[in-house]
Amino acid sequence: MLDQIKGLHHVTSMAEDARTNNQFFTNALGLRRVKKTVNFDAPDVYHLYYGDETGAPGTIMTYFPFPKMPQGRPGTGEVGTTVFSVPQGSLGFWSDRLNKLNVTGLKTEETFGEKRLNFGGPDGDGFALVEVKEDDRLPWTHGGISEDHAIRGFHSVAMRLRDDGATSELLRFMGYEVQEERDGVKRLTIPGGNGAHLVDLETMPNLSRALPGAGSVHHVAFAVENREKQLEVRKALMDTGYQVTPVIDRDYFWAIYFRTPGGILFEIATNEPGFNRDEDTAHLGEALKLPQQHQHMRALIEQHLQPLEA
């Protein structure tokens, strides 16, 4: 069993409109845009990162906004819900706030003994806020939401599967332990994790397979401290039979990818070097940053990309 993985690093999804996406995460949810860059493989498409002040691993929601992309169809073989941690007693504030902003799908419930507010994103994305008693991660409070209510980072992700057996086995190999099972949901945790160390597996044998599109999670990334730990994980996964990519430099972290038995794309990402490698922390997410191989196309890219601020 591996011990290098400490929880979630980031979750990357797809959207249909960059400006709407930016407005939702920075205004409605009060997160900081920590990086404005482009898709490595499609430089005419943004890659937007939202999180806490520094974009700490375990707080980072990222998006590829593909203009006019059809909405995805929810189903199995995907991350169905991305869940954020908020302070105890704050769900009333969030319910009122999101209701006033006409956010859809608002529903309050209790799961695994935690109070939870489900809601939908602009593209039908599945989200939830969960009240957490002791989450000492510092929130970003310059987005108009006070520290008493502000999002701390990820709480968990929920994966929809026709059968959770192989994925559960993989996660246990990655260092997760089964914490509890309720109502067809298996919760796994990493002891001593980074605060974003929970994964829920939802078994839905009668649900059709998901069709990716706007509102779908593209991949979920797990955090390791550095490149040395990442290489150890890569070797262990390959020795177990997984087809893992070579290490890829993503400017702000190094990444490896592999497809899980349930069909979900996993990434293992390093905590280093971080989002301040090319911007001062005080000005994260303000300027358009381009991967080196796309710098020569800056004028064309800037002309093509939609302005994020109206």
From TrEMBL:
Positions of the VOC domain:
7-132, 153-271
Under InterPro entries, the record lists: Extradiol_RC_dioxygenase, Glyas_Bleomycin-R_OHBP_Dase, Glyas_Fos-R_dOase_dom, VOC_core
Q: Does the keyword Oxidoreductase apply?
A: yes
Q: Name one Pfam family in it.
A: Glyoxalase
Sorted alphabetically, the keyword list is: Dioxygenase, Oxidoreductase
Q: What is this protein called?
A: Glyoxalase/bleomycin resistance protein/dioxygenase
Task: Quote one Gene Ontology molecular function term.
Answer: dioxygenase activity
